[in-house]
TrEMBL record:
Belongs to the 2H phosphoesterase superfamily. ThpR family. Its EC number is 3.1.4.58. The keyword Secreted does not apply. GO terms for molecular function: 2',3'-cyclic-nucleotide 3'-phosphodiesterase activity; RNA 2',3'-cyclic 3'-phosphodiesterase activity. It is an enzyme of class 3 (hydrolase). Pfam families: LigT_PEase. The active site is at H43 (proton donor), H133 (proton acceptor). It catalyses: a 3'-end 2',3'-cyclophospho-ribonucleotide-RNA + H2O = a 3'-end 2'-phospho-ribonucleotide-RNA + H(+). Keywords: Hydrolase. This is RNA 2',3'-cyclic phosphodiesterase. PANTHER family: RNA 2',3'-CYCLIC PHOSPHODIESTERASE (PTHR35561:SF1).
Length: 191
């Protein structure tokens, strides 16, 4: 049986999380055709794994256990709002990260190297360069897109605040008609 899984950081500071929710709601209020991320699902993805076997899950747990040997707990500043592929053609609306990027990139490197070393062929191949971000909403159509673009420009320097990063999670994504449900499979504490 395969498990849809990913590795993530959750937003540990409640005020940063409420700022993310507030900004997401500002985008929803534009009347644009958006699929907002649910409050409880807001996170930063270190690595999407895709549909993987239980054997791969066990190997990923071992890889995650290596992270605290190289990275101690740190602080991450959530700053700025942007969009992929661009502000003029938004498909994904996100909050950016300024402080803590080095540690997040190192975390991603440890995971990628571990996956390559263990030859985990069922793991989704990520073609994109790692760019730490927190997805707030996905754009479904071009309805009211000019309002979204205006808001993106207004919020490009928005400071959400600083949040500690004290753990890394392996999460399962259960797809339902009402949206995904995320469940913790494994948690690694940073020293």
């Amino acid at each position: 049986m395969s498990i849809r899984a990913f590795i993530a950081i959750e937003i540990e500071n409640p005020s940063v999380l409420s700022n993310l929710i507030r900004v997401r709601d500002m985008f929803t209020a534009t009347g644009a055709d958006l699929k907002p991320v649910e409050d409880e699902n807001i996170h930063l993805t270190i690595r999407f794994l895709g549909e993987v076997s239980s054997v791969t899950i066990e190997e990923i747990k071992r890889i995650l256990n290596d992270i605290p040997k190289h990275i101690t707990k740190f602080e991450m500043r959530v700053f700025g709002v942007g969009a992929f592929p661009s502000i003029s053609r938004p498909r994904v609306i996100w909050a950016g990260v300024v402080d803590g990027v080095e540690q997040l990139a190192k975390m991603r490197r440890i995971v990628d190297e571990g996956i390559a070393r263990a030859r985990l062929h069922d793991v989704h191949r990520d073609q994109h360069e790692f760019s730490p971000h927190i997805t707030l909403a996905r754009v479904r159509s071009s309805r009211n897109i000019a309002r979204v673009t205006d808001l993106l420009n207004q919020l490009k320097d928005y400071d959400f605040g600083v949040t500690p990063v004290t753990e890394v999670k392996l999460k399962q994504s259960i797809l339902t008609p009402r949206g995904p449900i995320y469940r913790d499979l494994y948690v690694v504490k940073l020293g």
